[in-house]
Design goal:
Helices cover 39% and strands 35% of the residues. It is of the alpha+beta class and 179 residues long. It has a single domain, classed as Aminopeptidase (3-Layer(aba) Sandwich). It has an 8-stranded mixed sheet with strand order 1-2-3-4-5-6-8-7, with helices on both faces. A hairpin with a 5-residue loop joins strand 1 and strand 2. The radius of gyration is 15 Å and the shape is globular. The relative contact order is 0.15.
Amino acid sequence: MENTTASPDGRARFERVETPEQTRALAELAGTIWREYWPTYLGEAQTEYMIEQFQSLPAITRDMAEHAYEYWLVRAADDNRIVGYTGGHVEAETNRFFISKIYLLAPERGKHFASAVIAFYEDLCRTRGLRAMYLTVNKGNELGIRAYEGKGFATIDAVETDIGEGYIMDDYIMEKRIS
């Protein structure tokens, strides 16, 4: 596949989402992952609201068309199964890549696919001449915070973002500089 990139460690492959069929598959995958993970942290109502606002087919299509988001399905290199997805966009004004999404299916967590995603973004940033990459992580996601710190990210800010309907995203902004 010409729209596929291997991770530097050979663990995963990244299939760029380009077609309407891939975009639909991505939205379905996003709904599955969000419903298995986030209700514990956010509750059912906020999870469903956030899926509709940020992870649904209309939201993904809008972000790709209007905000230059790029998405990839993450596949296991050994058998090509889909293990998750990731996406984000270049922030030209800061010369950084904003990693908006790194989400894995429950049975695939703890198998180092997230590490492969971070390595993929490090290579992408180097190739594109970007000085850093950054992401937001929920302040209650202690496992995620520790994992990002272990990969060289540092907390550079804390933000509370009103996303409507009375919901607030309470996040840390974590950045990793690219040498």
